[in-house]
């Protein structure tokens, strides 16, 4: 199954993230690059941080390299471009002003096939700038390698879609892996707020404020950190006419109070990475009459599975694939190693 053919050109940037370490993220990234090439689509590669290390810093196990071929455009750092880990021949075509401990962030064109350590300049603003430059230099699709511990710098704000890698490394219990993956897919695919609300809501959140929108269209803006203050502060501003809450900060169970009625209230947060709710907590909020939406969303275009864990155990491949497909009937689920 060619994932790229189903989303390009509607989606010009795709984040690849993992549910955990060793879920198969790099294997998935390599597969997506090959799929793009098979369609005649020129890829550009960037990471939300340094990636491509030979040895995983946490598990101390060997990691698959990021494979590149002649014609690709990649973002890396000056010192990484000449490291022993980078076996591809590169031509620097753009040197940015973004400094890092490993030199400036650069864009290189691959002259000869090999492996490369891709990286990014570190912040959302800078990654966006480098992504725009990739497009201007000829990339038709930008693939963003985003590790799970940098999820806030990946899918929702930086890309149009997400490909999520999951696998046995997440948990020895297959049912739990399936349930946690389904929950993450749901969060990453939350509905975006309408354009007429989004612009003002974004301004309010950037100013570290929250707001209430009433049924008559009026807004009440107030300063808050709901992560700390919890539902008590929101309750002080709720009324029978409240239809929307614009929420600055993280969304937890403490952020929203119990309501006295069954009216539906939309809760708007910046992006799914600001939501810290378990599946059960999300269900409780829905029962209470809260409906979540986001300013930035990168819907999951596909889920890839890795039935093997580096700890030496594995799931039955066919059972794992079938279970995930049953749980996510509307999303392609594939094992990229066998697809």
Describe this protein's structure.
Helices cover 29% and strands 27% of the residues. Helix 6 runs parallel beside helix 11. It folds into 2 domains: 225 residues, Rossmann fold (3-Layer(aba) Sandwich); 100 residues.
Compose a concise summary of this entry.
This protein is α/β, with parallel strands linked by helices and 339 residues long.
What separation lies between the terminal Cα atoms?
Answer: 6 Å
Approximate shape:
globular
Low-confidence stretches: 51-63
Domain count? 2
SSE pattern, N- to C-terminal? HEHEEEHEEEHEHEHHEEHHEEHEEHE
Question: What is the SS-derived class?
Answer: alpha/beta
Identify the CATH class of the largest domain. Alpha Beta
In CATH, the architecture of the largest domain is 3-Layer(aba) Sandwich
Give me the CATH fold name of the largest domain.
Rossmann fold
Number of strands: 16
Radius of gyration: 21 Å
Q: Indicate the percent of residues in helices.
A: 25-40%
Mean pLDDT value? 88
Q: How much strand content do the residues show?
A: 25-35%
Largest sheet: 9 strands, mixed
Number of contiguous helices:
11
């Amino acid at each position: 199954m060619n994932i790229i053919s189903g989303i390009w050109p509607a989606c010009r940037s795709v984040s690849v993230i993992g549910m955990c370490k060793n879920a198969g993220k790099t294997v998935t990234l390599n597969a997506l690059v090959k799929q793009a090439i098979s369609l005649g689509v020129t890829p550009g590669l960037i990471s939300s941080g340094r990636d491509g290390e030979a040895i995983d810093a946490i598990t101390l196990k060997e990691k698959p390299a990021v494979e590149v071929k002649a014609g690709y455009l990649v973002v890396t750092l000056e010192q990484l471009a000449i490291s022993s880990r980078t076996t591809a021949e590169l031509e620097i075509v753009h040197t940015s002003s973004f400094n890092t401990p490993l030199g400036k962030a650069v864009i290189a064109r691959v002259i000869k096939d090999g492996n490369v350590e891709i990286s990014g300049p570190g912040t959302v603003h800078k990654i966006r700038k480098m992504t725009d430059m990739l497009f201007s230099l000829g990339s038709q699709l930008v693939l963003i390698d985003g590790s799970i511990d940098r999820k806030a710098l990946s899918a929702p704000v930086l890309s149009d879609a997400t490909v999520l890698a999951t696998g046995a490394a997440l948990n020895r219990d297959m049912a739990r892996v399936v349930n946690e993956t389904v929950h993450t897919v749901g969060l990453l695919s939350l509905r975006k707020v309408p354009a007429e609300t989004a612009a003002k809501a974004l301004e309010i959140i950037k100013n570290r404020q929250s707001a209430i929108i009433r049924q008559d269209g009026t807004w009440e803006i107030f300063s808050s950190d709901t992560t700390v203050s919890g539902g008590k502060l929101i309750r002080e501003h709720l009324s029978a006419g409240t239809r929307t809450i614009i929420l600055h900060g993280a969304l937890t169970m403490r952020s929203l109070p119990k309501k006295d009625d069954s009216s539906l209230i939309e809760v708007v947060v910046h992006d799914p990475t600001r939501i810290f709710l378990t599946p059960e907590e999300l269900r409780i909020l829905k029962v209470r009459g809260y409906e979540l939406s986001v300013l930035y969303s990168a819907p999951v275009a596909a889920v890839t599975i890795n039935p093997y864990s580096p700890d030496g155990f594995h799931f039955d491949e066919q059972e794992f694939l079938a279970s995930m497909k049953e749980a996510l009937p509307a999303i392609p689920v594939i094992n990229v190693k066998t697809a």
